[in-house]
Amino acid sequence: MALLHVNFFSNVLGMCMDMDVILPQKTHGQIGMEGQGAGGRYKTMYLLHGMSDDQTIWQRRTSIERYVSKLGIAVVMPTTHLAFYTDTTYGMKYWTFLSRELPGICREFFPQMSDKRQDTLAAGLSMGGYGAWKLGLGASDTFGAAASLSGALDIVEDYRRNMTEQPENVPLFAGIFGSVEQLEGSDNDLLSMAERLAGQHTNLPRLYAWCGTEDFLYQGNLKAWQRVKNLGFDLTSNAAPGDHQWKYWDAQIKEVLGWWLGTDMELD
Fold first, then answer.
1. What's the pLDDT score for residue 202?
2. pLDDT of residue 205
3. Are 118 and 42 in contact (CB under 8 A)?
4. CA distance 166 to 144
5. Quick check: 131 pLDDT over 90?
6. How far is CA 249 from CA 63, 201, 255, in A?
7. Coil, strand, or helix at residue 131?
8. Do strands 74-78 and 44-48 pair parallel, antiparallel, or not at all (unpaired)?
């Protein structure tokens, strides 16, 4: 595998941004690991971080490079700051950057990346789980599948919970989404997005979700899972004992890769 640290300029955001990119490379002779070439255009996973993190976190907390070395796929890990993958009320267009500009930049820089929706996955944890499903539901012409690990899938309820339990976070949520009333039913409300997309009956993404049963986001996940199943989405959902921490996400990202690629290859 090749690991690239990329600094580039975003016209949408008007500032320099960073992403780390894993590219497939056929290798042998590395101690403990061999790399598989792609054999054509790269399937690509956009792997999103949570609230406290940046583009380096999946490499620092998991063995993502080792897991994908046998698969011949590319992994794009962008930094998106603390903006919930949203065109914020304070004027920063992170959603436009992520859903439109970034895939174009990646395919320009790395022409071997496939431009087919069935070859493009969005995945992430916590805030990134919200962002991943948002890409699947709101940019389904680009992303054919989306996977959330412990994601903030019921963002309206999460906003309300912060109002009572963590009021210090309310200015952050208000700056991103506006008021709860502005958020509910908008294009930032995943459940409303799912309902609108289901009504179109075209380009419905495959969805995946996992959440620990002791996670503070678990009840919101159960609500979201049931809603999208009722709307007819192809959803694979799993829950298991666990809370909000990396030992679970490290294990579950391997499950996501197997689900997306349709392989039972053991990733160790």
1. 85
2. 97
3. no
4. 35
5. yes
6. 11, 32, 10
7. helix
8. parallel
221 close to 211: Cβ distance less than 8 angstroms: yes
Calculate mean pLDDT across residues 129-152: 98
Compute the distance between CA of residue 144 and CA of residue 234 in angstroms, rounded to an integer. Answer: 11
Q: Which of 24-38, 119-133, 184-198 has the lowest mean pLDDT?
A: 24-38
* Residue 135 identity (one-letter amino acid): L
Contact 147, 208 (CB under 8 A): yes
1 with 23: CB under 8 angstroms? yes
d(CA 204, CA 257): 19
pLDDT of residue 159: 97
Name the helix (H) or strand (E) containing 125.
strand 120-125
Q: What are the backbone dihedrals phi and psi of residue 114, each rounded to the nearest 5 degrees, phi first? A: -65, 145
Contact 18, 54 (CB under 8 A): yes
At 115, which amino acid appears? D
How many whole angstroms separate alpha carbon 156 and alpha carbon 259? 28
Q: Say if pTM beats, i.e. exceeds, 0.85.
A: yes
d(CA 100, CA 132): 14
d(CA 224, CA 132): 14
